[in-house]
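HUMAN: Forgive my ignorance: could you write out one protein's sequence and backbone structure tokens?

ASSISTANT:
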Amino acid sequence: MTIQAPRKKFIWVWLLWLVGFYSIWAFLVFGLDQWGAVTEHWPIALAMALGSYAAGSTPMGGGTVGFPVLVLLFDMPATLGRDFSFAVQAIGMTSASIFILARRQPLAWSMLFGAMFGALIGTPLGIFFIAPYVPGLLIKVVFAVIWASFGILHLYRIREIAGHSGMTEFDENWDFRVGAMLGLCAGASVASVTGVGIDMVIYSALVLLCRADLKIAIPTSVVIMAFTSVLGVVVKNLSTGMQPGVYENWLAAAPIVALGAPLGAYIVDLIGRKPTLLFVAVLCVGQFIWTCSVERHTLGVAGVLMAVGAVGVCLYGFERLRAWGAVLVGEAKEKQAAKTRLAYLAEMSGQSLSQNPYPPQGRPVKQVEAADVS
């Protein structure tokens, strides 16, 4: 898998983006007299201060906070929460992505390009043919289940996930195909329905299949979520339009997330990713409990039990993905060992094998340290 991290940085590109964004935002707010809408929706701006930090420092988009705040706390329609997630991440995650690229942080490029290709097809299909037929209650439950399973996974696997170094190298064409398949499925289902989630899917593949370092997996997940969010906003505006109320909430939250997400990507390098992941994992489990509590009368006992069972199914899927990753890593080690032996025999071809009849054991799969990639 190709990982690139040129040492020369271009932070001025990100600063130029900020100047452009804030200039446009100022025109929309002050030039078009929208300051009242901004002040009226200050609670969502406050909530997105935390959401934007999570967006830049974890594989969970800003909608992880924005969706439950709007839908559960403010009792807004789930469709509004979904469209707001797309809209606010189109700024926050894009800002974080530009910051990541300007800093030349290592990314899993092959899987990222594959995921972009898959999302380019899957997200519009999901917006047109799946999302319109999903009831609001089901959107809430799907969101709660996926995020709860993701949180629980990190609560009991965090030591292993945070302990990965570099990335196991597979065939780049294989990486692209896996990314395309995941991008297609996640874009058509979870992203088009909830406005978030494709980042978590790609991140899971990287840490469970490829045993990728968090310094590689999380920035890659941020970039794919930025791409999908911008795509979702474009498709929604060109077709059905955004839900009423999205624009006003976006005006209030956008200036916060434009800075918050990149700062999250920077600060987490200083304090470490493990504490942040654990904190957000607890939030994910908490929002599941909150959703089941708020909707218990509508869901009934059977519905709550089905939601809990769905979390178990998701966790089983994560564990199967992890087991498959172990098999792939083992196969990669065997291939590397075979190449090492062949190289040794070729090197010794001009010498007497009787002097050293036993070739050295194969080295383990190459691990690329994020700090050493050039």
Summary: Residues 362-374 have pLDDT under 50 and may be disordered. Residues 296-347 form the longest helix (52 residues). The beta strands are 3-4, 107-108.
